Amino acid sequence: MDYSSYTESNKHPSDIDMFYIGKNNMLIVGEIKNEMGKLIGGQRSLYEKLVDNWKYDGIALFIVHDKYVQNGDKKVDVPECKIREYYYNHEWHTPRTEIKVKDVLRKYQEESKNE
């Protein structure tokens, strides 16, 4: 998606690749890119603002995949994708070990159930 043809005061629309509200209104949002992709500038700020201004607990994920996707010709199995960075508690973090999207979804559902 490219919204750069519409810019107003250095701002333009953006898309959100993953939006999930779990138990206890836990917000999990994510940006998905191939392994060479970067989460920069406005996109990074968008996810920070979404999580910081959410009334309940939230996390933003920078998700990467290893597929070369051209015009939707390949399927990206998002639950199996790796998390490169995550935004939680007002900071970006790099996972110390490999974490997949499905691991994050399970973790926060389990924590929500135990509250």
Provide a short characterization of the protein structure:
The protein has 115 residues and is an alpha+beta fold. The protein contains 2 helices and 5 strands, in the order ββαβββα. Helix content is 23%, strand content 26%.
List keywords for this structure.
26% strand; alpha+beta; 5-stranded mixed β-sheet; 5 strands; 115 residues
Write the layout of secondary structure elements.
Layout: E1 18-21, E2 27-34, H1 41-53, E3 58-65, E4 82-88, E5 91-93, H2 101-114
Parallel strand pairs: 2-3
Antiparallel strand pairs: 1-2, 3-4, 4-5
Fold and architecture overview:
The chain has 115 residues and is of the alpha+beta class. It has one domain (21-114). It is built from 2 helices and 5 strands. The chain has a 5-stranded mixed sheet with strand order 1-2-3-4-5, covered by helices on one side. β1 and β2 (27-34) form a beta hairpin. The N and C termini lie far apart (38 Å).
Distance between the termini: 38 Å
Q: What would you call the structural class?
A: alpha+beta
The string of secondary-structure elements, in order, is: EEHEEEH
Morphology call: globular
The strand line-up of the biggest sheet is 1-2-3-4-5
Number of helices: 2
Number of strands: 5
How many domains would you count in the coordinates?
1
